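For reproducibility, we list the full input for the 4'-deoxy-4'-aminopyridoxal-5'-phosphate complex.
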Amino acid sequence: MNHDESRALYDRALSVMPGGVNSSVRATQPYPFFIERGDGAHVVDADGNRYLDYVLGYGPLLYGHDMPEPVRAAVQSHASEGPMYGAPTEVEVKHAEFVSRHVPSVEMIRFVNSGTEATVSAVRLARAYTGRDKIVIMQGGYHGAQESTLVEGEPGDVHPSTRGIPESFAEHTIPVPFNDFEAVRDVFETHGDDIAAVLTEPILGNKGIVMPVDGYLEHLRNLTEDHDALLVFDEVITGFRVGGLQCAQGKFGITPDVTTFGKIIGGGFPVGAIGGKSEIIEQFTPSGNVFQSGTFSGHPVTIAAGYEYLKYAAENDVYDHVNRLGEKLRRGITDIVEDQAPNYTVVGTDSMFKTVFTREGPADLDGCCPAGCKQRESCPRYDYCPKNGADVAKADTERWKRIFWQEMKEQGVFLTVNQFESQFVSYAHTDEDIEETLEAYKEAL
Ligand code: PMP
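The corresponding predicted structure, in tokenized form, follows.
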């Protein structure tokens, strides 16, 4: 493949943007390929190379790169009639009504502009509502570039995970291992009266894909209830991706107090949202006194796209299609891995998938099965599925990034470059695309 144009653009970018990119994961080695346009399930780069796309903008593009006609029409009319006003619009009401009709935990919603902004606001809200400061999060979880959750360590020894964050922020955050019933119970026994919320992704989507084991989310629900703390699900990835329009909370049958959204809820435009029980969400200004505000919040183009996106999914076979292809891909990769690379593990559910390159072999990954995952009966490797961030962290990240990812790219398949970040299937993908991808996996492995 020729990459001359991308290389030239990268050289220019490096002198005007840090690392040549506007989000760090995009700086692939030796240089990123610059995208010229999308086309269904494909992207085309500046040199005219076509790639089957499983990155899909890191999750928002449920339909791939072609908007369904009602989405396109709504986006175009809102863009040409505005694009924004700093005053409310009808489409915001329609979208809020739609989401609260479908997502079990949502009675009210506040739209913001990114997943990060949603989790920042949710943490502020939980602290204000409970009058407490501490937040319990999961090791290996990700909630965007926010001060309270960019931490690492064990309870009692927690530090910011990047420069630029004062140590004092980390004092109020308690990271525990996902799926560890004891660890979170111990934390509540010690700090129960000071904990405002447990904030977790229902499925870890940024550290491999780690499913909750049976009963774990219920355990979190019970503990938070017993201690008058809030349960906050970060559904920025899983929202309208896993469990269809009911999201992961519907799939697992656990109703959190507050849910954060991003990605799909904005139909491919910048978005975030915080939903939940009215009595909690109404604490936001102006109905309450927890300050929350934003110039672009509820942007008509974004909200129209998001609303039409979800409406289209409600009226068409979207989730059946993406989930069927997701399963076909996971099963196919599992067969290849069994045959060619038995130390690797295929993870995921619905239309999410990833291959985790666990280097040390399965022996020390004791007995985890991805709860609710359809591979449970059929996958001979389900015992080896990682069950927390630390299990996934054993993966051979260099092998993924430097060899496997590059090899797949050269074969025209665009995967997420980080070993730990999820990949997705869209409505634009076809059975033939999946077969082509499996051939590429065979070659690359
Ligand atoms: N929460 C989760 C679970 C995420 O995966 C992400 C981003 N991938 C965020 C929050 C932050 O969202 P954004 O990048 O839109 O700020």
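Residues 4-66+318-444 form a domain with the Aspartate Aminotransferase, domain 1 fold (CATH 3.90.1150.10). The chain has 15 helices and 16 strands. Both points were considered when choosing residues for closer inspection.
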